[in-house]
Design brief:
By secondary structure, the chain is α+β, with helices and mostly antiparallel strands. It has eight helices and eleven strands. It has helices at about 25-30, 115-120, 125-150, 155-165, 170-175, 180-185, 190-205, 220; strands at about 15, 35-40, 45, 55-60, 60-65, 75-80, 85, 100, 105-110, 205-210, 215. Helix 6 (about 180-185) crosses helix 7. The radius of gyration is 19 Å and the shape is elongated.
């Protein structure tokens, strides 16, 4: 039986983070406050408001996004289990930038600056690995920003495909669970443009297209179309 896909974003898809900090799950649980369980739809942190804690996600799916002055939502990414989010909440003297929302019921551990300091004291390697983790987050955000400025719809789609195929979701499903309209929204193009590019890719034997499913038949070919060379 196929796994149920997540609800596709209505703005730009960026990345899915999962299991990046899995080796520290038990350590965090044993040395932090008890987990909190929150229902679907909970806004954990809201852009423009202070948030005193970061969150280690134990189970569920969290959306990270920002809103412009016109109320348009720009989705920056998704967090799944064993990842840390809302780190901008640790700057208590400033409002946070991003909004984090539970898309499913979630379980998380809240971590204040003091909590993290104590965890770092007990296991210094956790601090160094957390720096590497956020280096990866920054790299992914830069990758997404570059993709959004690409002039070619084909390049935007190729950037998106290569990034998505590196996610746990893709390795589980074996396809990208988006319609052409949702792909268009994800890469900042029109549905007509994406439909034209997808038809071209299908004719070349690089993809197979089903209802809300995009199968990638030759991932290596997409590297000829990308506009960014930061990923192997």
């Amino acid at each position: 039986m196929e796994s149920a896909p997540i609800n596709p974003p209505k703005a730009s898809f960026a990345f899915i983070l999962e299991d990046n900090l899995k080796p520290y799950r038990d350590f965090i649980l044993q040395n932090s406050c008890p987990p909190a369980n929150l229902p679907e739809g909970t806004v954990i942190s809201s852009g423009g408001s202070p948030a005193p804690e970061a969150c280690f996600l134990l189970e569920g799916l969290v959306k990270v996004s920002i809103f412009n002055v016109f109320g348009y939502e720009r989705i920056l990414g998704y967090h799944k289990k064993n990842s840390l989010f809302a780190m901008d909440g640790l700057r208590r003297d400033k409002n946070v930038i991003v909004t984090t929302t539970a898309l499913t019921p979630i379980s998380l551990v809240k971590l204040s600056k003091e909590n993290l300091t104590e965890l770092f004291r007990k296991r210094p390697e956790f601090a160094s690995d957390l720096v590497l983790y956020y280096s990866d987050v920054l790299k992914l955000m830069c990758y997404d920003a570059e993709s959004q400025t690409s002039n070619s719809v084909k390049s935007k789609l190729a950037n998106f495909v290569i990034l998505y195929t590196q996610s746990v979701d893709y390795r589980t499903l074996g396809y990208i669970p988006y319609s052409q309209a949702e792909l268009a929204s994800a890469i900042g193009a029109s549905r007509v443009q994406v439909s034209r590019v997808c038809a071209e890719l299908k004719e070349e034997g690089l993809v197979d297209i089903k209802k809300r499913k995009l199968y990638i038949l030759n991932i290596q070919a997409f590297y000829d179309f990308i506009s960014f060379q930061g990923f192997e």
